[in-house]
């Protein structure tokens, strides 16, 4: 049966940090070419409908930890704090896999980006699940530790912001519409990337609650991956809409 290998956890976490820096270097100046940033002249070939693409991309992050848990004999996930942390991760990806895709109204998604997205979700789903199920050791009172409670509050706050912002974005479009409009309401009053801000807060909350290298590496990756995208969204809105509120920041209220 599978055992905890601390060296494997360290290597995979370090690689995730390196991938984060690679993402930052690739997309800080030029956005990844999908959605509102895709080339206007490129033909929509090699694409899947957005709903199907999001479902396939996010599914491994839910299935891989579930499979790791099923393979563990006997099931571990003790104490309660460890069970809750694993549930938080799977809860996010249950929403992302089985709820979010069926409401999204995005444009068709490039197969190449879908492929790399699935690879990442397999990789990260394995790393986070493997650590929590086979390696993590927490005291019995971890649920009352300030790191767990503060991280949990941040996670729930971030997830709430993320889900609410996604709802506001969906309401901008009628069924069948693919045009882009100015987001209004919620945290969009202050930042252009409210949905991205929520997800970053969520995963840093998870990292604090978990207090582990894999979780902090994932939070750092999230920041480096969708932080630049929020910045490019902000520039797009300013360039496209003459009436775009000049007081809005790109990602973090009152800072950027």
TrEMBL record:
Keyword rRNA-binding: no
Biological process, per Gene Ontology: androgen biosynthetic process; cell differentiation; sex differentiation
Keywords assigned by UniProt, alphabetized: Differentiation, Endoplasmic reticulum, Lipid metabolism, Membrane, Microsome, NADP, Oxidoreductase, Sexual differentiation, Transmembrane, Transmembrane helix
Cellular localization per UniProt: Endoplasmic reticulum membrane; Microsome membrane
Catalytic reaction list: 17beta-hydroxy-5alpha-androstan-3-one + NADP(+) = testosterone + NADPH + H(+); 5alpha-pregnane-3,20-dione + NADP(+) = progesterone + NADPH + H(+); a 3-oxo-5alpha-steroid + NADP(+) = a 3-oxo-Delta(4)-steroid + NADPH + H(+)
Pfam family, one: Steroid_dh
GO CC, any one term: endoplasmic reticulum membrane
Bilayer topology term: Multi-pass membrane protein
Occurrences of domain 3-oxo-5-alpha-steroid 4-dehydrogenase C-terminal (ranges): 108-256
Family designation: Belongs to the steroid 5-alpha reductase family.
Protein name (record): 3-oxo-5-alpha-steroid 4-dehydrogenase 2
